[in-house]
Design a protein that fits this description.
Layout: H1 3-9, H2 20-33, H3 42-57, H4 61-71, H5 79-86, H6 90-99, H7 105-114, H8 117-124, H9 131-138, H10 143-151, H11 159-171, H12 175-179, H13 187-193, H14 199-209, H15 214-219, H16 221-229, H17 235-244, H18 251-256, H19 262-271, H20 275-284, H21 289-297, H22 302-310, H23 315-329, H24 337-348, H25 351-366, H26 371-379, H27 390-399
Helix pairs in contact: 2-3, 2-4, 4-6, 5-7, 6-8, 7-8, 7-9, 8-10, 9-11, 11-13, 13-27, 17-25, 19-20, 19-23, 20-21, 22-23, 22-24, 22-25, 23-24, 25-27
């Protein structure tokens, strides 16, 4: 029988029993680490921390838990020890994650990545959470973690973190309320989550993000003539100026249309609203058909009111279009809450602000909706969206599954 076979037959030695010596040494090293700065040099503190950390790796959870409670309040705790304990079982990590002021953002990111959701929730509730740590927390796509972050006034949210949260609200609509309370939220993000927000949150979005664009129009007034002199050949300028200009209805579309006016097209829609008529109403209203289709398909009804208010339609034509939309979708609730929401939005929104909302939706939903992006949305192959522009990201969320 060879040496390999003999080795396989040798009994595996039992681990040495844990005695009082180990517990005593762990306590003594913890005492050293916790001494005030006047009693121990930084070098000796970190050496003691290295020894302590090496022992704790192989020690029982109860010893690690005791150590975590002791070092959580230290202003100069050994960083490697904090990192190890912060990533440990939640019962051990909690004091470090909750109370340690000396743990670095880098170590919090490690704990957020290697720990579980309970680790991330505790980190999200810390008194101060940096943008770097917040991004690491939201990257896991967990609604409870996002809610904890949004409710914490001590959290700094980067634009990237906000974008991830907007994505999360589509499946967890209750988060919309908390996200709308954040001062960092941008108009593009607010108008995106509008599409799945509830009635009250939609009111808040309009109240916060609908503006008159007066200053924008005054500042760019001279550019309209320059653009006209160049026959509107620059697509980037044309796309931006379509958002800024005052006139909403498309005069060129009216000249080509089989209908005499937008009102005439809506009269026809009352009898039968089909895809062709939706396209025609969209063109006459100065928006792209894909935007018009999304507005008219919305179950809440506010977008229909915005469309009518922005284009200068009277109240009777608002009701005609709403009736046509309800009949087309087979929804019988048109004379209940839906109609109330439509009328409330129409009566409380000024024409200028309604135009701003409509223009923004049209820009965000259609200005960058290329054939390739439509294919990715249709096939669900969006992948990493961090490199997308604002309108591309909005379109992928609104039109995606």
């Amino acid at each position: 029988m060879g040496p390999v076979a003999l080795a396989q037959l040798e009994p595996i030695p039992e681990p040495a029993p844990v005695g009082r010596a180990r517990a005593a040494l762990v306590k003594r090293l913890s005492d050293l680490v916790c001494l005030p700065e006047t009693r121990i040099s930084p070098v000796e503190r970190h050496m003691a921390g290295d020894l302590l950390m090496d022992m704790l790796r192989e020690s029982e959870p109860i010893l690690r838990a005791k150590c975590a409670k002791r070092v959580a309040g230290l202003a100069d705790a050994p960083p490697l020890l904090l990192r190890m304990l912060a990533s440990d079982n939640i019962e051990i990590a909690t004091p470090i994650l909750e109370d340690s002021s000396s743990i670095s953002d880098a170590d919090l990111v490690v704990a957020a990545t290697s720990g579980g959701m309970k680790h991330r929730i505790i980190i999200a509730r810390r008194r101060h959470v940096s943008e770097l740590v917040a991004e690491a927390l939201v990257s896991h796509g967990e609604a409870p973690v996002a809610k904890a972050l949004l409710q914490n006034k001590g959290v700094l949210l980067s634009n990237h973190a906000l974008e991830r949260m907007v994505e999360l609200t589509k499946a967890h609509t209750d988060l919309c309320h908390f996200l709308l309370s954040r001062p960092e939220l941008r108009p593009s993000q607010g108008f995106t989550l509008f599409w799945w927000a509830n009635r009250e949150d939609r009111k808040r979005i309009f109240l916060r993000f609908s503006v008159d664009r007066v200053l924008m129009q005054e500042t760019t007034e001279g550019v309209f003539k320059l653009n006209s002199d160049e026959n509107w050949q620059d697509p980037l300028v044309r796309k931006a100026m379509q958002f800024i200009e005052r006139r909403q209805r498309n005069r060129a579309a009216i000249e080509k249309s089989p209908y005499d006016s937008l009102e005439d097209a809506i009269d026809a829609a009352v009898a039968s609203l089909d895809v062709k008529l939706v396209e025609e109403i969209s063109y006459l209203s100065g928006i792209k058909p894909i935007t018009g289709a999304r507005l008219l398909a919305d179950a809440g009804g506010e977008p229909v009111a915005i469309l009518c208010k922005a284009t200068g339609l009277k109240r009777d034509y608002l009701m005609k279009l709403w009736t046509a939309v309800q009949r087309n979708t087979g929804d019988s609730s048109g004379h209940g809450e839906g109609q109330e929401r439509v009328l409330y939005t129409f009566d409380t929104m000024s024409s200028n602000k309604a135009q701003t909302v409509l223009r923004y939706w049209n820009w965000a939903l259609s200005s960058s909706l290329s054939n390739e992006l439509q294919r990715r949305i249709r096939t669900g192959e969006m992948g990493d969206t961090s490199d997308l522009s604002t309108p591309e990201r909005t379109a992928s969320l609104v039109f995606g599954v």
